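**Reference record**
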Amino acid sequence: MTESPPDPGVSVPIQHLVVLGHPTAGSFNHSVARTYCETVRQCGQRAELRDLYAIGFDPLLNPGERRGAARTRLPRDVKQELGYLADSAIVTLIYPIWFGMPPAIIKGYVDRVFGAGFVARSIKEGSIDSALHGKRLMMFSTSASTRCWLEEQGQWLALRRAFDTYLATIFGMVRSDHVHFDSIVDGLDPRAANEALAVVREKTRAMCALLLQARHQHYAQHLMQRSTGPASAGAA
C-alpha cells in the first residue's frame, strides 16, 4: 500500500507580505519593518518586504486599471505586487499616521493592488471577489502625538473603522491586530525604541505561531478527507 504524497503546501515556508510606507530610510518605521522581517525568518517563515518609497511605487490609480473600464489592463508593477500577494498568508502594513490617516502611498497601494480586479457590487451581493480573501491583515502604525490625543480627537476610532475594519470586511480578510506606537519623534530615547521593538518581536512570534497552527489544522483536515474519501466512495 502506497502512502498519499504530502500536501506540497506544507513544505513551503509561510510567507508574510510586509508593506512599508515611510520615506525616511532611518525611520523608526523602518526599524519596525526590519525587526518584523528578522523575527519572521527566525521562526522559519519567509518575509517579502515591499518598501514602497524605496522601490518607487506609483500610488496613482490609472483610470484604465479600474474593473469595468473599457480596457482593463493591469500594469507590470501591479502584476508583480499581486504575485507577492498570492504567495502570502498575511499582509502586514507598516506606516506613520499623518493627518489622521496613513500616507498617500499606502492608500495608493490599497487602490492599485488590493483593489485590482475588485468588483464593488460584490459588497452588495455578499460575494467576495478578491485575491485577499481569507488572508490575514496586520498593522503597525506610529504617531508623533499620543494615543490619548488621537482618541480625544476621534482620529483613532475613525482610522480603525475607515481603514482596518473596512478593508478587512470588503476584501474578505481576517483582521488580526493593530499595534500602535505613539510619541515617536526625532531623537527618540533608544530605551523606548528598544522596548517598542521588543513588542514587535513578541507580536510577530505570536502571529507566526498562529499561522503555523492554522496550516497544521488545514493539513490535518486535508489528510482526513483523503482517508475518508475512498471509503465513502466504496460504501456508495
Observations:
- The longest helix spans residues 190-235.
- DSSP finds eight helices and five strands in the chain.
